[in-house]
Protein backbone atom coordinates (compact mmCIF):
# COMPACT_ATOMS: atom_id res chain seq x y z
CA UNK A 1 0.00 0.00 0.00
CA UNK A 2 1.36 3.39 -0.99
CA UNK A 3 1.54 6.40 1.32
CA UNK A 4 -1.22 8.12 -0.69
CA UNK A 5 -3.53 5.11 -0.39
CA UNK A 6 -2.84 4.96 3.34
CA UNK A 7 -3.64 8.65 3.74
CA UNK A 8 -6.90 8.25 1.83
CA UNK A 9 -7.96 5.42 4.11
CA UNK A 10 -7.32 7.63 7.15
CA UNK A 11 -9.27 10.53 5.66
CA UNK A 12 -12.70 11.10 7.25
CA UNK A 13 -14.98 12.44 4.51
CA UNK A 14 -17.65 13.33 7.08
CA UNK A 15 -15.30 15.64 8.97
CA UNK A 16 -16.07 19.36 8.60
CA UNK A 17 -13.34 21.34 6.88
CA UNK A 18 -12.46 24.43 8.92
CA UNK A 19 -11.41 27.69 7.30
CA UNK A 20 -9.63 28.81 10.45
CA UNK A 21 -7.52 27.39 13.24
CA UNK A 22 -7.77 30.24 15.76
CA UNK A 23 -10.05 33.09 16.82
CA UNK A 24 -8.16 35.70 14.80
CA UNK A 25 -8.67 33.78 11.57
CA UNK A 26 -12.31 33.14 12.44
CA UNK A 27 -12.90 36.87 12.94
CA UNK A 28 -11.25 37.59 9.60
CA UNK A 29 -13.53 35.22 7.69
CA UNK A 30 -16.59 36.47 9.58
CA UNK A 31 -15.70 40.05 8.62
CA UNK A 32 -15.13 39.05 5.00
CA UNK A 33 -18.55 37.41 4.93
CA UNK A 34 -20.04 40.60 6.41
CA UNK A 35 -18.32 42.72 3.76
CA UNK A 36 -19.65 40.49 0.98
CA UNK A 37 -23.19 40.83 2.34
CA UNK A 38 -22.90 44.61 2.74
CA UNK A 39 -21.79 45.01 -0.89
CA UNK A 40 -24.65 42.88 -2.22
CA UNK A 41 -27.20 44.66 -0.03
CA UNK A 42 -26.00 48.07 -1.22
CA UNK A 43 -26.30 46.98 -4.85
CA UNK A 44 -29.91 45.89 -4.29
CA UNK A 45 -30.69 49.09 -2.36
CA UNK A 46 -29.28 51.36 -5.09
CA UNK A 47 -31.24 49.55 -7.79
CA UNK A 48 -34.43 49.65 -5.72
CA UNK A 49 -34.05 53.41 -5.30
CA UNK A 50 -33.34 53.97 -8.99
CA UNK A 51 -36.46 51.99 -9.90
CA UNK A 52 -38.61 53.90 -7.38
CA UNK A 53 -39.26 50.70 -5.45
CA UNK A 54 -38.50 52.61 -2.24
CA UNK A 55 -38.90 56.27 -1.31
CA UNK A 56 -36.08 58.73 -0.59
CA UNK A 57 -37.07 58.71 3.10
CA UNK A 58 -36.74 54.92 3.20
CA UNK A 59 -33.56 54.83 1.14
CA UNK A 60 -31.48 57.48 2.92
CA UNK A 61 -31.13 55.97 6.43
CA UNK A 62 -30.61 52.46 5.06
CA UNK A 63 -27.90 53.67 2.69
CA UNK A 64 -26.16 55.71 5.41
CA UNK A 65 -26.26 52.65 7.68
CA UNK A 66 -24.65 50.41 5.04
CA UNK A 67 -21.95 53.02 4.33
CA UNK A 68 -21.12 53.18 8.05
CA UNK A 69 -20.97 49.37 8.27
CA UNK A 70 -18.79 49.23 5.17
CA UNK A 71 -16.29 51.69 6.68
CA UNK A 72 -16.15 49.78 9.95
CA UNK A 73 -15.74 46.39 8.27
CA UNK A 74 -13.01 47.65 5.95
CA UNK A 75 -11.14 48.96 9.00
CA UNK A 76 -11.38 45.49 10.57
CA UNK A 77 -9.97 43.97 7.36
CA UNK A 78 -7.21 46.52 6.77
CA UNK A 79 -4.53 43.80 7.05
CA UNK A 80 -6.34 41.37 4.73
CA UNK A 81 -8.16 43.43 2.10
CA UNK A 82 -6.22 46.03 0.10
CA UNK A 83 -9.25 47.73 -1.43
CA UNK A 84 -12.85 47.17 -2.45
CA UNK A 85 -12.09 46.36 -6.10
CA UNK A 86 -9.51 43.71 -5.16
CA UNK A 87 -11.96 42.02 -2.79
CA UNK A 88 -14.69 41.99 -5.45
CA UNK A 89 -12.32 40.57 -8.07
CA UNK A 90 -11.25 37.79 -5.71
CA UNK A 91 -14.85 36.75 -5.09
CA UNK A 92 -16.20 37.44 -8.60
CA UNK A 93 -18.58 40.16 -7.41
CA UNK A 94 -20.10 42.57 -9.92
CA UNK A 95 -21.87 45.38 -8.06
CA UNK A 96 -21.08 48.66 -9.88
CA UNK A 97 -23.81 50.68 -8.16
CA UNK A 98 -22.50 49.64 -4.74
CA UNK A 99 -18.91 50.50 -5.70
CA UNK A 100 -19.97 53.97 -6.82
CA UNK A 101 -21.93 54.62 -3.62
CA UNK A 102 -19.10 53.44 -1.34
CA UNK A 103 -16.57 55.57 -3.25
CA UNK A 104 -18.66 58.72 -2.80
CA UNK A 105 -19.48 57.86 0.80
CA UNK A 106 -22.87 59.56 1.05
CA UNK A 107 -26.40 58.52 -0.03
CA UNK A 108 -27.64 59.53 -3.48
CA UNK A 109 -30.16 61.83 -1.79
CA UNK A 110 -27.21 63.86 -0.48
CA UNK A 111 -25.33 63.75 -3.76
CA UNK A 112 -28.25 64.84 -5.96
CA UNK A 113 -31.17 67.18 -5.36
CA UNK A 114 -34.33 65.21 -4.56
CA UNK A 115 -37.77 66.80 -4.85
CA UNK A 116 -38.81 70.38 -5.64
CA UNK A 117 -38.18 73.08 -3.06
CA UNK A 118 -38.56 76.07 -5.39
CA UNK A 119 -41.86 77.19 -3.86
CA UNK A 120 -40.72 77.14 -0.25
CA UNK A 121 -39.04 80.50 0.43
CA UNK A 122 -38.28 79.72 4.08
CA UNK A 123 -36.54 76.46 3.20
CA UNK A 124 -34.65 78.20 0.40
CA UNK A 125 -33.17 80.75 2.80
CA UNK A 126 -32.35 77.98 5.27
CA UNK A 127 -30.44 75.87 2.72
CA UNK A 128 -28.55 78.89 1.36
CA UNK A 129 -27.48 79.85 4.89
CA UNK A 130 -26.45 76.26 5.64
CA UNK A 131 -24.39 76.07 2.44
CA UNK A 132 -22.53 79.29 3.28
CA UNK A 133 -21.91 78.04 6.81
CA UNK A 134 -20.50 74.71 5.58
CA UNK A 135 -18.24 76.46 3.06
CA UNK A 136 -16.85 78.71 5.79
CA UNK A 137 -16.49 75.85 8.30
CA UNK A 138 -14.58 73.76 5.78
CA UNK A 139 -12.23 76.58 4.81
CA UNK A 140 -11.61 77.54 8.45
CA UNK A 141 -10.84 73.90 9.29
CA UNK A 142 -8.25 73.76 6.51
CA UNK A 143 -6.72 77.09 7.54
CA UNK A 144 -6.28 75.69 11.05
CA UNK A 145 -4.24 72.82 9.53
CA UNK A 146 -6.78 70.21 10.59
CA UNK A 147 -6.42 67.67 7.81
CA UNK A 148 -7.89 64.46 9.31
CA UNK A 149 -10.29 62.57 7.06
CA UNK A 150 -12.80 61.95 9.84
CA UNK A 151 -12.98 65.71 10.42
CA UNK A 152 -13.21 66.89 6.81
CA UNK A 153 -15.50 64.23 5.35
CA UNK A 154 -18.59 65.07 7.48
CA UNK A 155 -18.32 68.77 6.55
CA UNK A 156 -18.11 67.92 2.84
CA UNK A 157 -21.10 65.58 3.18
CA UNK A 158 -23.14 68.31 4.87
CA UNK A 159 -22.06 70.80 2.21
CA UNK A 160 -23.11 68.66 -0.77
CA UNK A 161 -26.45 67.94 0.89
CA UNK A 162 -27.22 71.61 1.55
CA UNK A 163 -26.10 72.66 -1.95
CA UNK A 164 -28.40 70.08 -3.51
CA UNK A 165 -31.31 71.51 -1.53
CA UNK A 166 -30.78 75.10 -2.72
CA UNK A 167 -33.64 75.82 -5.17
CA UNK A 168 -32.60 76.84 -8.65
CA UNK A 169 -28.91 76.01 -8.18
CA UNK A 170 -27.79 74.37 -11.41
CA UNK A 171 -26.72 70.75 -11.34
CA UNK A 172 -23.74 71.92 -13.40
CA UNK A 173 -22.52 74.25 -10.63
CA UNK A 174 -18.82 73.44 -10.54
CA UNK A 175 -18.71 73.68 -6.77
CA UNK A 176 -20.87 70.55 -6.52
CA UNK A 177 -18.48 68.62 -8.74
CA UNK A 178 -15.48 69.74 -6.69
CA UNK A 179 -17.11 68.70 -3.41
CA UNK A 180 -18.12 65.35 -4.91
CA UNK A 181 -14.56 64.65 -6.09
CA UNK A 182 -13.12 65.46 -2.67
CA UNK A 183 -15.68 63.15 -1.07
CA UNK A 184 -14.48 60.34 -3.32
CA UNK A 185 -10.84 61.11 -2.51
CA UNK A 186 -11.38 61.15 1.25
CA UNK A 187 -13.59 58.07 1.20
CA UNK A 188 -10.74 56.05 -0.31
CA UNK A 189 -8.64 56.85 2.77
CA UNK A 190 -8.86 55.64 6.36
CA UNK A 191 -10.65 57.77 8.93
CA UNK A 192 -7.38 58.25 10.83
CA UNK A 193 -5.49 59.38 7.71
CA UNK A 194 -4.72 63.00 6.90
CA UNK A 195 -4.59 64.72 3.54
CA UNK A 196 -1.25 66.22 2.55
CA UNK A 197 -0.44 69.90 2.83
CA UNK A 198 -0.57 70.13 -0.97
CA UNK A 199 -4.04 68.53 -1.05
CA UNK A 200 -5.22 70.86 1.70
CA UNK A 201 -3.99 73.88 -0.23
CA UNK A 202 -5.77 72.68 -3.38
CA UNK A 203 -9.00 71.95 -1.51
CA UNK A 204 -8.93 75.37 0.14
CA UNK A 205 -8.36 77.05 -3.23
CA UNK A 206 -11.24 75.15 -4.87
CA UNK A 207 -13.65 75.73 -1.99
CA UNK A 208 -12.83 79.43 -1.88
CA UNK A 209 -13.53 79.68 -5.62
CA UNK A 210 -16.75 77.67 -5.27
CA UNK A 211 -17.90 79.82 -2.35
CA UNK A 212 -17.35 83.00 -4.39
CA UNK A 213 -19.14 81.51 -7.41
CA UNK A 214 -22.03 80.43 -5.18
CA UNK A 215 -22.44 84.02 -3.97
CA UNK A 216 -22.20 85.33 -7.54
CA UNK A 217 -24.92 82.97 -8.76
CA UNK A 218 -27.21 83.86 -5.87
CA UNK A 219 -26.66 87.58 -6.44
CA UNK A 220 -27.49 87.12 -10.11
CA UNK A 221 -30.74 85.34 -9.27
CA UNK A 222 -31.59 88.03 -6.75
CA UNK A 223 -30.99 90.83 -9.26
CA UNK A 224 -33.01 88.99 -11.89
CA UNK A 225 -35.95 88.63 -9.48
CA UNK A 226 -35.72 92.33 -8.60
CA UNK A 227 -35.72 93.38 -12.25
CA UNK A 228 -38.75 91.23 -13.07
CA UNK A 229 -40.66 92.70 -10.11
From TrEMBL:
PROSITE patterns: VPS28_C (PS51310), VPS28_N (PS51313). The keyword DNA damage does not apply. It is a peripheral membrane protein. GO terms for biological process: protein transport to vacuole involved in ubiquitin-dependent protein catabolic process via the multivesicular body sorting pathway. The keyword Protein transport applies. Residues 6-112 form the VPS28 N-terminal domain. GO terms for molecular function: protein-containing complex binding. It holds the Pfam family VPS28. GO terms for cellular component: ESCRT I complex; late endosome membrane. It is found in: Late endosome membrane. Residues 123-219 form the VPS28 C-terminal domain. It comes from the Eukaryota. Signal peptide: none annotated. Keywords: Endosome, Protein transport, Transport. InterPro entries: ESCRT_assembly_dom, Vps28, VPS28_C, VPS28_C_sf, VPS28_N, VPS28_N_sf. Component of the ESCRT-I complex (endosomal sorting complex required for transport I), a regulator of vesicular trafficking process. Belongs to the VPS28 family. This is Vacuolar protein sorting-associated protein 28.
Amino acid sequence: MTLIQSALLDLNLDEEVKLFTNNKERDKYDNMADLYSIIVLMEHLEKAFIRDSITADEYTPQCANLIAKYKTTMNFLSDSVDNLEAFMNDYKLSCPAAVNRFKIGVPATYEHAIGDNTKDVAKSAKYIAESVLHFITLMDTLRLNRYAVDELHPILADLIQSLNNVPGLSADFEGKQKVRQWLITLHSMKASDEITEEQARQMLFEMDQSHSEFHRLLSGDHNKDGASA
